[in-house]
Amino acid sequence: MADLVLFHSALGLTEGMSQLAAQFSDAGHAVHTPDYYDGHVFDTVDAGIAYRDEIGFPDLAKRTSDAIAELEGPLVFGGWSLGAAMAQSMGKRDPRAAGALLFHAGGVPKKTSWQAQVPLQIHYAIGDAWIDAGAPELLVASVAEAGASAAQFVYPGSAHLFTDPSAPEYDAQLAGLLMSRVLRFIAEEVDQG
């Protein structure tokens, strides 16, 4: 079983995020859900993004790092939307990283190198307006070039947070498919390492 650190979306640590974390716990994994929004939750992505911008991404990233500083590795980092940026950052640089999962995000390919021992999965809907065209493919190629396994999974529709049970665009069938793929990733790529 794995230790997972799950980073919430711009909506904050909502009831939906708690339900998602519980699915991993129910599968036998240890789960940590740092609240880098300090208890603030939002009903709309726009309100959550406004809060992100008010605090500033560098300060949110510092809050995240501080919240998990005491955790021992290996750790699988996963994030939803805004939280995927945190998970990608940890996958690239944190020596405790054993895997990275980006949900409802395409990643941000940058010149910095990826850690060869950290496999990556990216999950998003094909018509999601928040995904920059070509970004997932570039990130997957960058990770593969570093020597780690990398895969992207594209789902039908245009819903952004389709796995979040508290979001209006929640799709139980797609969420179940995504979860089965992620649990297989943990079992095959992380636990077997």
Count of runs of 4 or more consecutive helical residues: 6
Largest sheet: 6 strands, parallel
Order of helices and strands: EHEHHEHEEHEH
Instruction: Tell me the β content.
Output: 15-25%
Question: Rough shape?
Answer: globular
Helix proportion range? 25-40%
Strand order of the largest sheet: 2-1-3-4-5-6
EC number: 3.1.-.-
GO molecular function: hydrolase activity
Keywords: Hydrolase
Domain Dienelactone hydrolase: 5-188
Topology, pairings included?
Blueprint: E1 3-7, H1 15-26, E2 30-32, H2 45-55, H3 57-67, E3 75-80, H4 82-93, E4 97-103, E5 120-125, H5 135-146, E6 150-155, H6 172-190
Parallel strand pairs: 1-2, 1-3, 3-4, 4-5, 5-6
Pfam families: DLH
Domain Dienelactone hydrolase: 5-188
Protein name: Dienelactone hydrolase family protein
Task: List the keywords.
single chain, 193 residues, alpha/beta, six-stranded parallel sheet, 6 helices, 6 strands, 17% strand
Can you describe this structure?
This protein is of the alpha/beta class and 193 residues long. The protein contains six helices and six strands. It has a six-stranded parallel beta sheet with strand order 2-1-3-4-5-6, with helices on both faces. Helix 1 links the parallel strand 1 and strand 2. The protein is globular.
